[in-house]
Amino acid sequence: xxxxxxxxxxxxxxxxxxxARQAALQAQSLQTVPxxxxxxxxxxxxxxxxxxLPEVVGEQYLVFSLFERExxxxxxxxxxxxRMVDVTPVPNVASWVQGVINLRGSIASVVDLRTFLxxxxxxxxxxxxxxxxxxxxxxICLTVDGVSEMVQIPERAIVGGNTHxxxxxxxxxxxxxxxxxxxxxxxxxxxxxxxxFSEKMQRYSE
Length: 206
Fold this sequence. Notes:
By secondary structure, the chain is mainly β.
């Protein structure tokens, strides 16, 4: 067959010394790339550090309603939220003490928070809830108008009660630790210890 008539000559063989040099250069280039660690992704052959997760700030609060206002306790002070149940009356107690209930095997007092604060009583309805509030060994069930949500409140959204006394109703001020501004909502933050261990709460007998 004549040269060039459909026949392609094979490329000349690479000298052994040149082949060895090329392999050494490739191995050296690979050594300069640090090994990827778990959680890393490769970009153009190079590992990149994983994106840091945003730091969680603030504390969890349970928001509830009372007298058309919003209030909140720290979630760590809430033992549970219950629908209204039958309450066993107790004689010779203050008018704001509704009685007692069996709360998961323990006897707990039930306090109508509206009446305790001197507000107009509200007939119970399907939205009425019992908040089991605990501080140390003290557990009291508070009757509230409704429970809306569990929300995380960042520290920057909280202002002290002494700074904005005009934002906190006088009838709740002795038990408030401050207030929080959340998306144009004002939530009054309550101190469970101040409420449960207040002189009035401790002297519930008539």
